[in-house]
Amino acid sequence: MADETANVQGTAGFLFEMGVLKNAKRTGWWFTGNNNPESIAEHSFRVGIVGAVLAMMEGVDPAKVALMCLFHDTQETRIGDIPHIGRRYIDAASNETVTADQVSAAHPAVKAGVQRVVGEYENGDTPEAIVAKDADKLECLVQAVEYRAQGYSLVQDWIDTSLNSLKTASAQALAEAALTMSPLEWRKTFLGQ
């Protein structure tokens, strides 16, 4: 009974830790002059949606991709959101190591499941992991387009880097479409304009 209680408490602790992502900001956007960028949780939510959509377009498992997307940045509760330029100067633990620590006290099924999902994403060699990584980059591109429309003019590097890293035809097509339209274009469908 003591082990079961500890596993449940360890799992609940993991859930509380994931709440930190709601307040932790994506720090790379600070370089663009945006002092109040999206949170890691906001980014991860849309990465999950983008991943599911891309998976449907690419003919791979959307649930598996969305799950990888949901967990792709959970390690940032412990190490923060290190901008790409900062990674040159910091030797951080691998995401797999951080994840193992995060779920070390969780229910055994949760521990194994989360580690499996993060491991597959980090290895990046399954069709679902490739789509999940594209979802992360495509969401960054879409966010940059939105920030550009809001007046942040220094986002082109984020657009270019994201666009150049996309691997799937569906992600490339969606990126090209996003770059040619207003972030509010979707409203015209229902407003008849």
TrEMBL record:
Q: Pfam families from the entry?
A: HD_3
What SUPFAM superfamilies does the record point to? HD-domain/PDEase-like
Instruction: Give the enzyme's main class according to its UniProt record, as a single word.
Output: hydrolase
Q: Which domain of life is it from?
A: Bacteria
Keyword list, A-Z = Hydrolase, Metal-binding
Domain (HD/PDEase): give its ranges. Answer: 36-150
Instruction: Provide the reaction this enzyme catalyses.
Output: a 2'-deoxyribonucleoside 5'-phosphate + H2O = a 2'-deoxyribonucleoside + phosphate
**What EC designation does it have?**
3.1.3.89
Q: Which SMART domains match?
A: HDc
Q: Which InterPro entries would you find in this protein's record?
A: HD/PDEase_dom, HD_domain, YfbR/HDDC2
**Is the keyword Hydrolase assigned to this protein?**
yes
Q: Does the keyword RNA-binding apply?
A: no
Q: What Gene3D superfamilies would the database entry show?
A: Hypothetical protein af1432
Q: Report the cofactors.
A: Mn(2+); Co(2+)
Quaternary structure per UniProt?
Homodimer.
The protein here is known as: 5'-deoxynucleotidase
* Protein species of origin: Streptomyces virginiae
